[in-house]
Amino acid sequence: MTFPQFAYKNITRNLRAYMAFYLSSSFAVMIFFMFAMFIFHPALETGYMNNIAKKGMKFAEWIIFGFSIFFILYSLSTFLKTRKKEFGILTIHGASPKQLRWLITLENVFIGLASIITGILGGTVLAKFFFIAGAYMVKMEPLQLYFPLEALGITVGVFLLLFILISQFMLFTIHSEEVISLLKGSEKPKKEPKPSILFSVLGILFLGTGFGMSLFAGIDMGSAVVITLCTVIGTYLFYSQLSVWMIQLLKRNKKMYRKGINLLWISDLTYRIKDNARLFFIVSIVSAVAFTATGTLATYKLMFSTAETSYAMEFLSYATNQDEKKQLEFIKEKLEQENIDYQQTIFKAIEARQGPMSYPVLVVSHQDWVKQFPELQAPNIHDGEGIYYGEAKRGGYTIVNGNKTKLLTDDQQMSITLQSIEEPVFYLSDILVVDHNTFRQLEQNHELSTMYGFQFENWKESLEISQEIQSQIVGETFNPNAQYFSKAVRYFETVQLPSLSLFIGLFIAIIFFLAAGSFLYFRLFADLYEERKKYKSLAKIGLSEKEMVKISTIQMAILFFLPFLLAIIETGFALHVLQREGGYFHVFQSGVITILGFLGLQIIYFIIMSHSYNKHLKEYVFR
């Protein structure tokens, strides 16, 4: 039998031991491949929004790959720890370090190739759903399936190299141990964990400081760094010291501790939490980041919507604008270059302010308004009356039918009785339609501004020219003499970009969350051999199958949901900061929905894992 055959037989004869590592690697490859298919899709070669989506996917792709390195590294290290005894036996029988290196490299290449093939097949099957979901959320045209040659090449090359490099790195951990240590594997006796009271108190102080500052402190860059550091350090001390101390306090309650099976699962839980402190710390932090990011992105998306206005483009030229003619010609030139058939509306208006909060408004003659907008069927008005087209609520000021509103200009002030309040017609300004005599009085002392409206179909496709026009008229920041609005730009900024961010962020958050659950899964199955022997001994002195399942399920529930609970608490404080400082009023609603969604995933994951874990225990202990 050749050495490659030996490595292959080693995998196929012990497939159950390799399965967790293989599935986790396949999952990482599948997600990477689907994002690569999106990035290299031919339909994304042109178009501004497509280019933005492509850049966002690239950013997400390399975040996923970076996390995949850590994910696969942890999976492999946990997997190899369960095989230390096997490596010790091979060393005793004459296997050289070079042969061990070759064995592990071959095994990783075999598993890596299988994972790459499975991941690519799974990604191909799910790609259509991924394209439909992505296009729907980002409000793009649905993407068609294609033959992803570039995506295949980069996925195979990157992950095959990754498996080889990681296997070489992990060999150092094996070579650094003596043969006797390898043979003992995980059978070394463990000392009872003894927490430090000092570090336990420090954990309380760090968490208290982080949470307290989140509630009451003003937030700037410095305080944000302090809150983050306090929360991170406090979380680690909670698992490594404080939680062990709390379990020891629980043990002092003899009545509760010695009741039924409590003694077994509480005493064992001390070792479990102490051994997995770093793992729980990572899971809590990763989960909290995933919850907070997803809730924030969802909130940002809810805060905005596309502007429901009559015109695809608006151009407001104030009386002081010297470049009006040139800017108007530029707009028309761009529209004609794209063969856009547009309809233009023009009317003159007076720039004024109204209400106690001095909100800007354009004052228009009723005669001109009816001429330009006969479809609105504006009713006749008398002297001193007006019709208001705009938002009725402006901060703390509400415009009410029948009330008088103060109309302010540079040198005049008059009261206008509002006959009715109608839906906005323009985005750039609210409109106050007044009777012809009132308008003539105002016109005598003021130069007129001009509002241009451009209406055309398929306005979503005008994003690129709209951005060129906006740059020409408004410039880098602000033009006091003119304003420009494009429905396509507004739609891009308030719908497409937030949707793209949510889509990418949600995918990354789900990956991080599932990876966090996988870390727990790998750790549980790494300890499975030792746990089976423990329960086998307990079964000999009367432990029933029902009691064993109950003990292991309680322990698994604590291991799965304790980091989740702490992540929820940390997310709550983070969302509170965002609501208090950023004005994200729907952030808690989005955060609760996000957490409930992830909780559902966690419960499903827990049910599957506990069933599989208990099945392995029962097969060994009570067979």
What composes the largest sheet? 6 strands, mixed, barrel
* Total number of helices: 20
Distance between the termini: 34 Å
Q: Quaternary state, please?
A: single chain
The amount of helix comes to 55-70%
Mean pLDDT: 77
Query: How big is the Rg?
Result: 33 Å
Strand adjacency order, main sheet: 2-3-9-4-8-7
Beta content comes to 5-15%
| Global morphology | elongated
Poorly predicted regions: 176-183
**Number of E-type strands:** 11
Task: Tell me the structural class.
Answer: alpha+beta
InterPro entries: ABC-4_Integral_Memb_Prot, ABC3_permease_C, ABC_permease_BceB-typ
Family: Belongs to the ABC-4 integral membrane protein family.
Protein name: ABC transporter (Permease)
Domain ABC3 transporter permease C-terminal: 63-171
What does this structure look like?
Helix 1 packs across helix 5. The model is unreliable at 176-183 (pLDDT under 50). The two termini are 34 Å apart. This protein is 67% helix and 10% strand. Strand 2 and strand 3 (359-365) form a beta hairpin. Among the domains are: 1-188, no CATH class; 313-493, no CATH class. The strands form two sheets. The protein has a six-stranded mixed beta barrel with strand order 2-3-9-4-8-7. A two-stranded antiparallel sheet has the order 5-6. The longest helix has 42 residues, at 97-138. The chain has helices spanning 3-12, 15-39, 48-81, 84-92, 97-138, 149-175, 179-184, 197-216, 221-251, 254-257, 262-275, 277-303, 324-337, 366-372, 436-443, 463-474, 487-526, 528-540, 545-582, 587-621; strands at residues 313-317, 343-354, 359-365, 385-389, 393-394, 397-398, 404-408, 413-422, 431-434, 449-455, 482-486. It is an alpha+beta fold and 623 residues long.
